[in-house]
Amino acid sequence: MGRLGIYVSTKIEKEIRDIYQLEIQNGAHPSEVSLSSVCNELLRQGLIMHNAKKNKDTFSQQKWNREILRKVTGSYEAVLMILTMMNEIQLKNAGSNDDAAIDAMLSQYLSAIKQAEDTAESNHFIKPENAE
Fold first, then answer.
1. Under DSSP, is residue 31 helix (H, G, I), strand (E, B) or coil?
2. Structure confidence by residue, pLDDT tens digits, 85-131
3. H helices, E strands: number in the chain
4. What residues contact residue 23 under an 8 Å CB cut-off, 6+ apart?
5. For the chain, which residues make up each domain, given as ranges?
6. Contacts of 57 (CB under 8 A, 6+ apart)
7. What confidence tens digit (pLDDT) does each residue in 55-94 have?
8. Pick from 37, 12, 9, 13: which is nearest to 23 by CA?
9. From the Swiss-Prot or TrEMBL record, what is one GO molecular function term (predicted)?
10. Which of 20, 54, 83, 113 has the fewest Cβ atoms within 10 Å of its own Cβ atom?
11. In this structure, are residues 106 and 83 in contact, taking their beta carbons and an 8 Å threshold?
């Protein structure tokens, strides 16, 4: 494995250390993640972007965002359809054909999904220092 001695600005060093600390807080064992592994991953991603620019393989953030949004919303819709079908089956097996009961159960599931999304967001993203 190669070795580089590099200097970075204080701001970049802080951001790298924040990423490292976030990984530790999310349950990674110190033997699984290190400052070196974090820097290696950031450099690898940077080289991918550098090579894409060099090869005129232009990256369109707008196209990427549109595609991700399309996939995520499609997955979300599929989850909702599955939950609806499962609720209907469960309630019909219990002898109920009440649409309000289906809506209530779906509302519970959607609230749980929203809470899980919020928890995941707070675990995986560092909040800006000026956001209070």
1. coil
2. 888 888 888 887 777 877 888 888 888 888 888 887 777 766 666 55
3. 4, 0
4. 33, 38
5. 10-54, 61-124
6. 51
7. 765 677 888 888 888 888 888 888 888 888 888 888 888 8
8. 37
9. DNA binding
10. 54
11. yes
> How many residues are there in the chain?
132
| Torsion over CA: 1, 45, 118, 19 (sign) | positive
C-alpha to C-alpha distance for 76 and 69, rounded to whole angstroms: 10
Q: Tokens in use for 51?
A: 């090579």
Helix (H) or strand (E) holding 104: helix 99-124
CA distances from 37 to 76, 121, 123 (A): 33, 23, 20
If you ran DSSP here, which 8-state letter would residue 105 be given?
Answer: H
